[in-house]
Amino acid sequence: MKFDEAYSGNVFIKSHPNFEESEAVIYGMPMDWTVSFRPGSRFGPARIREVSLGLEEYSPYIDRHLEEVKYFDAGDIPLPFGNPQRSLDMIKEYVTSLLEKGKFPIGLGGEHLVSLPIFKAMVEKYPDMAVIHIDAHADLREDYEGEPLSHSTPIRKACDLLGAENVYSFGIRSGTQEEFEFAKKSGMHMSKFDVAEPLKKVLPELAGRKVYITIDIDVLDPAHAPGTGTAEAGGITSKELLEAITAISNSEVQIIGCDLVEVAPAYDHSEQTQIAASKFVREMLLGWVKKQPK
Amino acid sequence: MKFDEAYSGNVFIKSHPNFEESEAVIYGMPMDWTVSFRPGSRFGPARIREVSLGLEEYSPYIDRHLEEVKYFDAGDIPLPFGNPQRSLDMIKEYVTSLLEKGKFPIGLGGEHLVSLPIFKAMVEKYPDMAVIHIDAHADLREDYEGEPLSHSTPIRKACDLLGAENVYSFGIRSGTQEEFEFAKKSGMHMSKFDVAEPLKKVLPELAGRKVYITIDIDVLDPAHAPGTGTAEAGGITSKELLEAITAISNSEVQIIGCDLVEVAPAYDHSEQTQIAASKFVREMLLGWVKKQPK
Amino acid sequence: MKFDEAYSGNVFIKSHPNFEESEAVIYGMPMDWTVSFRPGSRFGPARIREVSLGLEEYSPYIDRHLEEVKYFDAGDIPLPFGNPQRSLDMIKEYVTSLLEKGKFPIGLGGEHLVSLPIFKAMVEKYPDMAVIHIDAHADLREDYEGEPLSHSTPIRKACDLLGAENVYSFGIRSGTQEEFEFAKKSGMHMSKFDVAEPLKKVLPELAGRKVYITIDIDVLDPAHAPGTGTAEAGGITSKELLEAITAISNSEVQIIGCDLVEVAPAYDHSEQTQIAASKFVREMLLGWVKKQPK
Amino acid sequence: MKFDEAYSGNVFIKSHPNFEESEAVIYGMPMDWTVSFRPGSRFGPARIREVSLGLEEYSPYIDRHLEEVKYFDAGDIPLPFGNPQRSLDMIKEYVTSLLEKGKFPIGLGGEHLVSLPIFKAMVEKYPDMAVIHIDAHADLREDYEGEPLSHSTPIRKACDLLGAENVYSFGIRSGTQEEFEFAKKSGMHMSKFDVAEPLKKVLPELAGRKVYITIDIDVLDPAHAPGTGTAEAGGITSKELLEAITAISNSEVQIIGCDLVEVAPAYDHSEQTQIAASKFVREMLLGWVKKQPK
Amino acid sequence: MKFDEAYSGNVFIKSHPNFEESEAVIYGMPMDWTVSFRPGSRFGPARIREVSLGLEEYSPYIDRHLEEVKYFDAGDIPLPFGNPQRSLDMIKEYVTSLLEKGKFPIGLGGEHLVSLPIFKAMVEKYPDMAVIHIDAHADLREDYEGEPLSHSTPIRKACDLLGAENVYSFGIRSGTQEEFEFAKKSGMHMSKFDVAEPLKKVLPELAGRKVYITIDIDVLDPAHAPGTGTAEAGGITSKELLEAITAISNSEVQIIGCDLVEVAPAYDHSEQTQIAASKFVREMLLGWVKKQPK
Amino acid sequence: MKFDEAYSGNVFIKSHPNFEESEAVIYGMPMDWTVSFRPGSRFGPARIREVSLGLEEYSPYIDRHLEEVKYFDAGDIPLPFGNPQRSLDMIKEYVTSLLEKGKFPIGLGGEHLVSLPIFKAMVEKYPDMAVIHIDAHADLREDYEGEPLSHSTPIRKACDLLGAENVYSFGIRSGTQEEFEFAKKSGMHMSKFDVAEPLKKVLPELAGRKVYITIDIDVLDPAHAPGTGTAEAGGITSKELLEAITAISNSEVQIIGCDLVEVAPAYDHSEQTQIAASKFVREMLLGWVKKQPK
């Protein structure tokens, strides 16, 4: 036993101890200050790591083992409570530094607004990128009751940043009338209700493109992800989301980063939400990190 | 801010403040005294209202907005604890008064026995009505261990009141041998296990008819509705129930009222049961109120 | 039954339906954006109201009945998610308007930062007021990691506004070294660990003075109030807090308003925290409203 | 292993397998149909038995071992759901038969109304009996909103049956104004808020008398018994209740039977309420059964 | 009422009181000492029995009633805490004695390692038997970090005992790379991810064979069985598992015994896991006991 | 931000990053394989660390700050599931190595049996040591139903190792008759029910002695520590335990190490047990580490 050499702290299973040697970096964004319903996703990243110790290191979905990927778990960015602007600035700065060092970023939320500064950092490096967005909510508002910094707005901002035609949303089953109208008129892609089937149809169109992927855990039905702030009945199964992740792994897309957000553990005493999320992270590590552009 | 004008209390989202101007009335029936397993559905109506504030007001399922319907939320009828007969009398009296005033009744339970006095009130106004019943349980008993007033009996009473051939049950996966035999012999319609597909086949047959619809939340699998008294494995998803509600909205049926019963919040700390229920109520408001007979 | 006349929504038990005729006004401040540990107190006011229906209307502690006090329950102020400054502005504006109309304000939080704008509104009307502060935490920081608007700062701001010698803290068992040093040097009163006994000693000194009282539910041991964001072991019992409330009722103090904050229901599935809080509100209504200055 | 001889089912630890040879009989009354707030005490008896397997068989409080007492666990009386009158009749009939056979009855509730038929059965055998009542609630109403059969009435009925001067209530901290006035005028004994100290003062006065004891678990503070329907802040500790039970064991009172009611497990996921209740039952068995009149 | 004749304790609904007259015996194995993640399945058997009282006695899946089968519920084997070897010896001894007396064994776990001694007992009587294994996990390890007695190993031991070609696994979605390679090379049958469809294809091949069936509740998605130690996202629905059980009932297989393991109630406050498990046990009793070889 | 330098994983708040420079070492023993009631304390150490981030770094109890002590958090010893003997060997080996390096050991359990190998390691270095034991249970059994390695035995073993007259137990309220008789006859010190007062009387007697302290969290009443395996009603408050810890800090005792065991988070969704435990650890760090012998 060598307990005196390094912390055996709460990191994602099989994380590599050395930042420099790692291809990918897992980082947490413990922020939930702008949510309109149930807060608590600030504890999502820590709990996803915690239950990862119950995971197998091998995936029968794509026949790969975590030893085939080198990733560092950087812990959570210490975001300032209740200050959305400074939090977003810190996230952007951190992701930019990861990109400068050639790391593949895997972000864990936190509320969905955290994806906005990531988009901003990514687009500076990859101006021609596209976004795949898997979520129950359209997140296409311009503001939320006057607040432009809201967890309901990041995909609208992505449309502004990247051009709506480069944004692909799947599984959407909730939003305002204006959001659905925007989706229709703007030229973006939106598949309502389902994920795996429409995604498989779209992936060939994205072959060879640089794509960032953001997944909101609430795309799952609350039966499969009760631990989330804005649970929305009528969602997909965890089996379907695994199928979607695998389809992306097996596609010709060049993946440049990803995040998984809105795990709020306080509402799920069975821990099934974080258990599912940690499995999704394993599949992203195994299937997506190797697909990054050289 | 005008906090001095009216209560901003716990009402279903976007309720109209004026009873007279409303087409529909939401009312709660907080009664659970005759249940044979886990009580607690008395708190169902209050919690469905409470979480409705997390709902969007627009439905992408039928492209309609809650502003298109005027409904009043009357709160809960103050039923006497432990007295089934007086409780049922009060419900019948209340629904009768709603019908006299031309209101579309949307009842929230409470145990399923609350539908019995509603049936009685409805049939006085609409003697040729039919009932669509969506439930895990047949509810076709004549009595429960000697008690004729039991949550296991309301559909049998509906058969007595309306003629069994006017009762259509869907999703049934639990009951006594006698109940299933009655279903076969009586001339009623019973679809076991599934809801959306068999319902879509039956709806054309009901075109133009006046139909009351009663939904027991336990038709959902306990995965989707853990918060109910008599959870029964092997049920449908919330996605399938949304599909069924939408199919009714899009049918030629004349809807004369509806209820949603058996939400028991104490068994669901994720609140997903009431969150799903409040979405179903939204869809009923949007899709069914307009389909009432003139 | 007169369900067509008024909402029977979620208001504190026995609330008076008319604002103008009421002496006191209960109002909620559903804000938790700056908390440093577990969020969720935004749902505190609604749940305190909800469980108030389980309360008796009579108090054996001071032999008084809720019919002896007229109070209006105004519901929750619709605070903007994630925007502390605008939220505080709205609270100050609302309390100021209550004071202008001669109402006794009873605020329900929400995080403790909501007391800051209340202090500001109160001191404009009552420049010579004092504050009684009952809490586990000193709340005497100047800022929290650079953020001046934090739930750790309101009592420090009260010292700035009123003069430290007019601030009386009880039950304090947590804070930084700087906060405890400030308490010693500033001239304020701070009783550590206990509430009822030291308070009884101080009350004669406050006789005849105008006093605002703010209670943080976490002064209770987590055994008695598990539903709070920053639970702190080693606290007092609910029996002791009732004794303290009663002692104030029986004192010669002129009470000008009060609040009860930091009830976060998601962490307490037994609902005992809000059940206790609703009892405290009943005792405040019965014992404190009548003690306001003419 | 002799698994083929008898059920090893859910009985209170160390129960004697033979009814005839037993001095005392534990029986459950799974009824909660008249409760005005949170139902669920029907599952109390089963859960108290279940966790009894975590108990030691020896008590350091009175230095006695469960092998010194012979008691049979009869399971739950199969009460008819939602029918208070028939339920009470069945309880009275059962307790009467126990008394005829010379058994010491130990009843487990269920709601407190179950004590009423027990009182009726007891007084037929012991016309000069007294009652010790330990509870948060006075339970002295004549009816509850018109219903004479309510969980708020049993102690008033006891006063009618036995003479108010033979009823001794302890720990009372909730009730209507009328109930507290009745307590004052009727000649009954009522100690507010506390149990152990006032009880110790009263016990000498009851020396040599035949006494039935009814304990409502909600006399404990919700911190110690969150699993109950009508939790009431400001209660006693489980340590104080153990002290009270021991004081009765050590007194000169002749105990003729007892019950423990209102354990509602659904509201306590830690199971601490039933764990405490099972310890109280052990202490009653050890300290009270031997004190019955010959 | 005849409460004096026999315990009415916690047994599976409609259990026969007489061991000798029964065809089948339900027995619990409350062991969880070797689990690598969340313990607690020791309480599974007791809670499955407890909630069985909420079940109907009739199955609409195969149109049969529990009165058509005679089964005795023997309670739990009192296994020694923390001693795997002695526990397994006791289980083997008990099952052997059941087989000698011609009883059909229905075992309730506990962790999956309990199936190992059952396999050993069964194969002594039925050397040409096959095993159907329904599970999320391959359970094909030779040891777990050096411990040969681990909940990850029983199916590997079954392959050793019976020949891998007589082992049929369904629903597997987790394991080490070595386990999946063993599955491929060993000649065993393994269907990944799904259960009902592949099982229906395999059943004709097993016609006339003696088959033991072991079901790990975690084959269900955590949405349907949150109460289990090693929850694994991406599983099947309870509807699919009911379909699989019914397919076996309707097949030409000769069933010689079965078990259902890994229900861990502490992680599921809705009780849906044990509610589903008790329904599966009912279906096994109704569909499988009659299919045993003469 | 320097996220690339070191894990920011789950360590106790303010842990020092360097083992060599630290005076004290926190280490976890995630073992619960021999518990006789509810397992789950294997997750205790991780959750105590997790909630430590909600703690203040300063203690008003002894006016000291965590910066005054240097301690390293070594994480959890990777104990082999279900193998008590190997687990105990690993613990002894680890603690021995800590003592060789002059570190003050602070162990987090896990079940109480983990203290046995610690005692063995300690007594080799400090043959004249004494033990202070704070617990609800006597833990004085020679074996548990034949198993000598059981969570009910460690204090008996301590008596064997150190001489009973060097063992001081406080707060004991549960055990077998034999255990209490042993306590009387053996010459050990046992204070029943209470902790702070009897401890203060004993501490002068221990002045100058080398003392190891073991605290079982279940000495607290279940109200204060619901998250434990063998909850026992009638316990002390967290306030009293803080008083006891402070009294030891202020005494003339030479403390040589300590542990805190039996935190089982699954039974406490409010997290109050681990929140209290982390505060106790802070107080031990602040008050006890400095009191070690040179």
Automatic annotation (TrEMBL), chains A, B, C, D, E, F:
InterPro entries: Agmatinase-rel, Ureohydrolase, Ureohydrolase_dom_sf, Ureohydrolase_Mn_BS. Gene3D superfamilies: Ureohydrolase domain. Keywords: Hydrolase, Metal-binding. GO terms for molecular function: agmatinase activity. Pfam families: Arginase (PF00491). Its EC number is 3.5.3.11. Belongs to the arginase family. Agmatinase subfamily. This is Agmatinase. It comes from Bacillus carboniphilus. The lineage of its organism: Bacteria, Bacillati, Bacillota, Bacilli, Bacillales.
